[in-house]
Amino acid sequence: MAQGPARQTVRTTIERLHRSLFEFIAVPALIVVAFVILAEAIDWLDNHAGPAHSWSPLRRWLAQYVGDTQSAIGVLTAIAGSLFTVTSITFSILILAVQQGATVLNSQIVDHYLRRSSNRAWFGFFVGISLFALITLVQTTHTRAPIFGVMMSTILGAVALFALILLIYGTIDQMRPATLIEAMVDTAVAARQRQLPLLTVSKAPNGQATGTVVPAPLSGHLARVNISALQALLARHPDLRIAIHPAIGDFVTIGHPLASLSHADDDIVQTVGAAMVLTRKRDIADDAGYSLHHLHTIGWTAISTARSDPAVGSITVQALRDLAVAWRQDPPRASSDARLTYDDRLPLQLVDTIESLMVASSESRQHQTMALILDTLAAILPVMPNVQRRAMPSVMRTAAQLAASHTRTRVMGQALAQCEQACRRHGLHDEAAILSDVVCSQSPV
């Protein structure tokens, strides 16, 4: 057991390198390799062209624009140098644009920017073209007539200049709040889908778990759970029951309980501990709550007096409404006799986020944002899963209390009335009465 923390640290480091390789480096690397292969193929064609009288009409036509070897070297030197200069300057500008977007909205937008396959492909494309031109320049010294190499480098250079326009526009577009927040919603929905296998094989907890505790070997966030390892362990031990304590994304300190076991030996404890993957940084690919946290941070900053930007606040509230609709169904859970227990806290995190933004709107007196949040609650109440609906009495009471602090505007009155009607339709009669009192107590502007 003494080697547990060290082994876990090594495993976490290896997994981090593995994920960074396949999440970012893999796509650019494949594109760069493709350009290197293309450069070698073009060099082979130029070196096996044969004597000039046997050239094809296309090759003879291209030869008049290339000239001799020294002319080709001059052209390739200019192209390679220009590509390296333009690429380095462009990447520097893009980094500044991403940093500016991170300053305005959220520092974690860099993760969402790098996760886009198109952005990774662009990086590989420009590095690959620059490397292609450099390889062709080096190979020209031993090529008698580098016709195809020069023409291909010229064509790719022109394509690269046009692609720079697309890359710059695409980056600026991705830094717009609406585009960025939409990407966060899509990432959260995709991450939630990756959590479904864990929810399918586990049941919701019923009371506090007891038994042998599996301690965390190091501090970090629970990134994912190795379901296959746990299922194999349960198959080998028919009387074993496992209760996972933290939810995906939760931070645990070293020694904090990761799971409780009905009974265990050292091998079982180590297997369960190894199945709980802890990382220092939360992973947006598998942690839907992380993207939700990003939306919460952006919304709070925009709605509160920290920035007071109702436009971005409205986009964030609408994004939360989209997530509520996307997660409107209760996730599939295992039957009550399942031997694996996991507490799915994401649905309530979404409700807590909406409630928190109501507090921010009250602090900044953004009545229009508060009205939009009330509209959102009235719209999503009919489609809420059971776990969220059980939390709505408290949320509606908070909404009534905070709405009372706002000056009554027309949109506020309409939003309160819609919330009151939604509560009455779905059995929240006490909360509907409280909202009705708020409507009656407020005086129109």
TrEMBL record:
Keywords for this protein: Membrane, Transmembrane, Transmembrane helix
InterPro entries: DUF2254_membrane
Pfam assignment, any one: DUF2254
Glycoprotein in keyword set: no
Regions that span the bilayer: 21-42, 72-98, 119-139, 145-169
Protein name: DUF2254 domain-containing protein
Organism of provenance: Sphingomonas yabuuchiae
